[in-house]
Design brief:
By secondary structure, the protein is α+β, with helices and mostly antiparallel strands. Helices cover about 45% and strands about 15% of the residues. Strand 5 and strand 6 form a beta hairpin. Helix 3 runs antiparallel to helix 4 and helix 7 crosses helix 8. The longest helix is centred in the middle third of the chain and has 23 residues. The protein is globular, with a radius of gyration of 20 Å.
């Protein structure tokens, strides 16, 4: 699609041999962003703000961030941050493979509270003591990387694991969703449904498609999704489709007719009507109001 958003990939051989984790300063990252700060990544990113105040957007959520704030983003999510007023910080970046190859749970990273598909927020504000503790671990990670030898990879995994576990505990405390997360994890069908929608929602809008994929009836799928999430499977799919429409409207200049085609609506008018029902306004005014 034309007017695509810049996508940055992990520099695996930055330190010679392949290494799938890194810590970089934000003032260094700024130099490599394209003319626009809007971009997406193909790896996981945990950003720590140390200096300055400004806006930081992850997908359709915009946050006012200050020092001691942490931002989480998954591969493919659209990011946009105020490079003028957010002066510095650290980005802890890694590929899922770096940890999944170590644990029996191949989805370990995706199961972290802040990286789940329906996480409560992409921002976490840390207490000063915990923030200082984590920054110290980041410093140790950077020292290990700067003197990296192939056998040091387990030390780096251990340090990364410690950071993620401390953040996971703080995030769960902030959102008080321990019980909710437990219920969701126990419902294997709902979890698989969410992953399937995340992959196929652009071209597949029907509940029946996902029910067939899961080898269950659409009624049973609806019952499980409604009891777990509080709304129907159809509504969940529609929300995902409209979230993608919002992203394309706000972060690209792609014509509305092309967006309708990209999201597999039968006609442009049907897309416009559906979008208005979902947001209360038609696509063009929405784009004018929300475009950065």
């Amino acid at each position: 699609m034309k007017n695509s958003i810049p996508r940055y990939t992990f520099y695996k051989n930055k330190y010679g041999s392949e290494l799938l984790v890194d810590v970089v300063e934000l003032k260094y990252v700024k130099k490599f962003l394209a003319e626009s700060a809007i971009h997406t990544l193909n790896y996981y990113d945990v950003t720590f703000i140390t200096e300055g105040k400004g806006t930081f957007s992850v997908d359709n959520q915009t946050y006012e961030v200050t020092p001691c704030d942490v931002l989480f983003s998954k591969p493919g999510e659209i990011r946009n941050w105020d490079t003028r007023h957010i002066i510095n910080g650290y980005a802890l970046i890694f590929e899922e493979e770096f940890l999944s190859s170590l644990f029996k749970d191949s989805l370990f990273v995706q199961h972290l509270s802040f990286f789940q598909l329906e996480s409560f927020s992409s921002r976490l504000h840390l207490p000063d003591e915990l923030y200082a503790r984590i920054l110290q671990i980041l410093h140790h990670i950077k020292m290990e990387i700067d003197s990296y030898q192939q056998n040091d990879v387990h030390v780096l995994r251990a340090l990364l694991y410690e950071v993620l576990m401390l953040l996971d505990r703080a995030y769960l405390k902030m959102t008080s969703i321990e019980e909710g997360r437990s219920r969701e994890a126990s419902n294997n069908h709902v979890s698989k449904f969410m992953n399937l929608v995340n992959i196929h929602s652009k071209e597949q809008h029907s509940v029946q498609y996902y029910a067939d994929k899961l080898c269950i009836t659409s009624n049973y799928l609806n019952e499980m999704v409604t009891s777990t999430m509080g709304f129907s499977a159809k509504q969940y799919i529609q929300n995902k489709v409209m979230d993608e429409a919002k992203r394309l409207l706000v972060y690209t200049n792609v014509p509305i007719s092309d967006i309708a085609f990209e999201l597999c609506f039968s006609t442009v008018s049907y897309f416009i009507r559906s979008f208005r029902q979902h947001t209360g306004e038609t696509p063009l005014p929405y784009r004018k109001t929300h475009k950065p």
